[in-house]
Amino acid sequence: MPRRRMAAADNTASTTALPASSLLPDTFTDGLPLPKLIVFDLDYTLWPFWVDTHVTPPLKAQESGRSVKDRFGESFNFYNDVPAILDAAKSLGIKVGAASRTGTPHLARDMLKLLRISRESNGSTEKAIELFDYLQIFPGSKKTHFARIHDSSSISYDDMLFFDDESRNRDVESLGVVMWLVRDGVTTEEVDKGIESWRRRNKKVAN
């Protein structure tokens, strides 16, 4: 049964500058090692819908890019914590990627182009897609997505952390990537758990 998309009002990304304690996962500022690259799935990881089944083009930005409206007037946006997480990661010099197996890559890219993210570092807003260093959006095994990211970035697999909502995609761990399974979208708490798992797996801290 398809999962119910969360109401837009509950997930609209605020452009108001947040206090540092709300903006950053604790692991971003605790002084311990961080992955060089964090990769996110899209559907039910960064946003609460399947872009290939819930969204009908054409798309139009609304509320200055805080959300996107489709042909039928349905509103779509990121999970609440996502904009601040992406902004913080980029501000810390962490590379950001997306690995999605959606059947409508063009629609996913359009969504990322229309949604905008506030940058606390300079008070500006940017298209969400501009915060991603690597985009691999096409049907198929996530291992192929990561092989392409690895080839493009020259970043070791063990320096990569992956957030995804489907356990079948744990097969990327055979490459050396650490995957953290999320059930209700990416939050600051899930990022902390994922980074802590990455540190344990790579012996960056004592178990």
Automatic annotation (TrEMBL):
One of its GO terms (molecular function) is acid phosphatase activity. Pfam families: Acid_PPase (PF12689). It comes from the Eukaryota. InterPro entries: HAD-like_sf, HAD_sf, HAD_SF_ppase_IIIC, MDP-1_euk, MDP_1_eu_arc. SUPFAM superfamilies: HAD-like. This is Magnesium-dependent phosphatase-1. It comes from Lineolata rhizophorae.
